[in-house]
Every structure is written in structure tokens, then in C-alpha cells.
From TrEMBL:
Residue spans crossing the bilayer: 47-67
Keywords, alphabetical: Membrane, Transmembrane, Transmembrane helix
Region (Disordered): 76-163
Protein name (database record): Lipopolysaccharide assembly protein A domain-containing protein
Compositional bias segments (type: Basic and acidic residues): 82-105, 122-143
Length: 163
């Protein structure tokens, strides 16, 4: 908005300067101006309305400029308030941290609670904790191999009778 306002102000100013440099515009019944290689002729009434339009463009540019400045000022004010609020929150948290550190330093050291005894494990329900029972290696049971066993995955070896 600010850039558009400045552009309109510059445009209106350029039009006013162009008219003021032309000495014959005010003294004759018609005024002619050359803009972008085109000649435009105005009567005194048209010249007056062109001045009114130039003034309106100037006022519109000033209004846009001030609206943009007001908007950016409000944005800066909100940003400043947000930063101040964050800074206050950080200061409050740091003060709470210092207070807790002071309480921790002034509090007497208390012993850690004793760990709870592990629950007894008696899966075979013989009254003795299974972790305390002496257990030996489990006996291995050998299963005789049968001739028609086949592997599901892996390498197959062809035997004479399975051709």
C-alpha cells in the first residue's frame, strides 16, 4: 500500500510540474500537452477537471500511504507486544527455576526408598521360588529320522528312491 501511494503521489506531482512548465497553458483558450509522443489538447474547463483529477489522485496516494503506515505500525506494535510477552514468560520461568534450585539446595537429603522385593515366581506351584531351584540341563530327546522327511525351505538332496 505504501508503494502504491508513493507511486500515485509521484504521478500527480509529475503532472503538476508538467503543467507548470508550460507557460501557454494558462494564457490561451486551449492547452496542448505531449505525453508519450501523443499530443493532447484541453479547453480551460477540461484543464480544470484534469487538475481536479490530479488532486484526487494525489489525495488517494496520500490516503494509501497513511493507511499503509498505520497498518505497518500496528503490525510492529503487535510484534513488540508479543516479544515483550515472551520475554516476560522466560523471565518468570527463570525465576521459578532459581526458586526451585534454592529449595533443592536448602532441603535435607533424603535417602532413596528401598526397592520393592521382586515377586516370587513359582510356576510349578511346589512352594519354592523357581529362581532359587537348582535346575540342570534338560534331557535331549532324539527322534529317529524317517525316510520320507522333506525340507520346506532350503536345499534338497535327491536320494536314489525319490527320483
Amino acid at each position: 500500500m505504501i508503494v502504491l501511494g508513493l507511486l500515485l503521489i509521484v504521478l500527480a506531482g509529475a503532472a503538476a510540474i508538467a503543467v507548470s512548465w508550460d507557460e501557454t497553458a494558462a494564457s490561451t483558450a486551449t492547452a496542448s500537452f505531449t505525453v508519450f509522443d501523443r499530443t493532447v489538447q484541453f479547453t480551460q474547463l477540461e484543464f480544470f477537471f484534469a487538475g481536479v483529477a490530479t488532486g484526487a489522485v494525489l489525495l488517494l496516494g496520500i490516503a494509501l500511504l497513511f493507511a499503509g503506515m498505520r497498518r505497518s505500525a500496528a503490525h510492529r506494535r503487535q510484534l513488540r507486544a508479543t516479544r515483550t510477552e515472551a520475554r516476560d514468560r522466560v523471565a518468570q520461568l527463570e525465576e521459578e527455576k532459581r526458586e526451585l534450585e534454592r529449595k533443592l539446595e536448602s532441603a535435607p537429603a533424603t535417602p532413596a526408598p528401598a526397592p520393592a522385593p521382586a515377586p516370587a515366581v513359582d510356576r510349578n506351584r511346589n512352594g519354592v521360588d523357581d529362581r532359587d531351584e537348582p535346575t540342570g540341563p534338560h534331557p535331549r530327546v532324539d527322534v529317529p529320522r524317517q525316510s520320507n522327511d522333506q525340507l520346506v525351505a532350503g536345499r534338497h538332496q535327491r536320494t536314489v528312491d525319490s527320483r
